[in-house]
Design brief:
- This protein is globular.
- The protein contains eight helices and no strands.
- The protein folds into two domains: about 100 residues; about 160 residues.
- α3 packs antiparallel against α4, α4 packs across α8 and α5 runs antiparallel to α6.
- Helix content is about 70%, strand content about 0%.
- The protein is mainly α.
- The structure holds zinc ion (ZN).
- Zinc ion binds next to loops.
Length: about 260
């Protein structure tokens, strides 16, 4: 019998490595560069980083946050993202067990983190996260049988249709692009993971978070772009974890 903590450690190690890969995606996808080749280089001196200097979190700590060759500092962002994704995979395995739902939670969280950081920095959401994530969401839903797949397809269609309508209506109302295509594709992917009720929770929560956080920050600066994907990502994570509870609460509220 293999003890439970073995699986939790394995999930964490897997997460740390996906975090390392997410770092590569965050840097390269907005530049339309391959995330597979070439190997990682030091951004300062351009020297190739050896595998033993590329171990998640550990290498950064051992090298005290500096490049082995040029000694220049390496951003704290790298180990921070690795650690965050590692903890997300641990939490998913802990909460949902070593199940397909646990895997879906871990993958979904990783995708949302990549989307949030990229949208905040570049105001864009690469297709690899959205269309790629949609493919993963649909495949994982199959583990729940045909019902699982139908739920995911209906969720994806709801996300696409609703956001497409909001974007169209916004453009009519404000005579300029109110919402980017990236947001529409993102919500299609989100729908495949959280279903149609989850899409509604995400959209409502995203608008709420955006209003509470972004509006005060951009006060007096009306031209500032809104990285709506950041708020949608936060709300989508809430919808995944608490969606069923929120729906049940709302139904009780309505007296259904
Ligand atoms: Zn260097």
């Amino acid at each position: 019998m293999i003890p439970d903590y073995f699986f939790l450690i394995a999930a964490t190690l897997l997460g740390l490595n996906f975090g390392s890969f997410l770092n590569v995606c965050i840097v390269r996808l907005p530049e339309d560069e391959s995330v597979v080749k070439p190997r990682s280089k030091c951004p300062k001196c351009g020297k190739m980083i050896a595998w033993y200097d590329n171990i998640p979190v550990l290498s950064w700590v051992l090298l005290r946050g500096c490049c082995r060759h040029c000694g220049q500092p390496i951003s704290f962002q790298y180990p921070l993202i690795e650690l965050t994704v590692g903890l997300m995979w641990l939490a998913s395995a802990w909460w949902y067990g070593i199940t397909v739902t646990g895997l879906a939670a871990a993958v979904f969280g990783t995708l949302l983190l990549g989307i949030a950081i990229t949208d905040a920095r570049h105001y864009l959401i690469p297709n690899e996260y959205t269309w790629g994530g949609l493919g993963v969401g649909l495949v994982l839903s199959l583990a729940g049988g045909l019902d699982g797949l139908i739920t995911a397809v209906v969720g994806a269609a709801t996300g696409f249709g609703l956001l497409y309508f909001v974007a169209w209506a916004g453009e009519k109302a404000f005579k300029k692009e109110a919402m980017g295509g990236g947001d529409i594709k993102m919500m299609t992917m989100v729908g495949s993971f959280v279903g149609w009720q989850g899409v509604l929770i995400t959209l409502f929560g995203g608008a709420l978070l955006g209003t509470l956080i972004f509006v005060p920050l951009s006060f007096g600066n009306r031209e500032r772009l809104v990285p709506f994907g950041v708020f949608l990502a936060g709300a989508a994570a809430i919808a995944f974890v608490f969606g069923d509870a929120l729906v049940a609460w709302y139904m009780g509220f309505l007296g259904v």
